[in-house]
Amino acid sequence: MAAQMTDAHRRFLQVLMSHGIMEGSEARKLHRRCCEIDKAYYAHDKLDDFVSVINSHLQPLFMQVRKGMSEGDGRVHYALVNLAETEITKMASDYTENELELFRKTMDLIILSESGFASSTDILNLADQLKTKKMKKKEAEQVLKVFVEDKWLSERNGEYTLHTRCIIEMEQYILSNYQDVARKCNICHSLAIQSQVCESCGTGMHLPCVRKYFRAQTERRCPHCNDLWSCDIPGTKR
């Protein structure tokens, strides 16, 4: 039998729904605040148990609070995910057909790239090649801005990648539709878009996971095939 939902659980869920995604430290603060306001039991290390209670009640609604990692800095995030639809069509109510087509093509560029990024130039060049309805580059720039604001894409110096929210929400869709190229991190076992890859066996790892893994190793060797890890790891010394 599922544990009872309290007002603290409901309050936490409402705030998370309004944000869509929340960084782990913020989620922990919210957990504490909700428990204090509603005089519910609180333990600082029981956030995941607290979330499990929420998930047990969300299950019939095909919703779930899911935990994922930022590929940029390795920080944990919590996101509310719709499980009823696993495809990009779940975005259909928010975007037009040609906006969705631009998103799909942008996702193609990002996932098929070696770096996990796509340049704004390459994305904007797709705007007048859309089958649904061509876009002017100015219009496409505005659509990309909306995708960033809605936390489907992240942008850094004119380079775009998938936002942590997108990766958490679309993980199964990406693994199913990009089977030849999509891979899971060998360390955390989550989908890895931005990753380093072993030249010998193709094993991939998120950069934060690479740093963490090799910090505890005397030699930089692939955890899968044991060959020397040839990639440079920014922010660390050999």
TrEMBL record:
Catalyses: S-ubiquitinyl-[E2 ubiquitin-conjugating enzyme]-L-cysteine + [acceptor protein]-L-lysine = [E2 ubiquitin-conjugating enzyme]-L-cysteine + N(6)-ubiquitinyl-[acceptor protein]-L-lysine
Q: Which GO terms describe its molecular function?
A: ubiquitin protein ligase activity; zinc ion binding
Which keywords accompany this UniProt record? Chromosome, DNA damage, DNA recombination, DNA repair, Metal-binding, Nucleus, Telomere, Transferase, Ubl conjugation pathway, Zinc, Zinc-finger
Q: Does the keyword Transport apply?
A: no
GO CC terms of this entry: chromosome, telomeric region; nucleus; Smc5-Smc6 complex
Q: How does it assemble?
A: Component of the Smc5-Smc6 complex.
What is this protein's name?
Non-structural maintenance of chromosomes element 1 homolog
Q: Which organism is it from?
A: Eurypyga helias (Sunbittern)
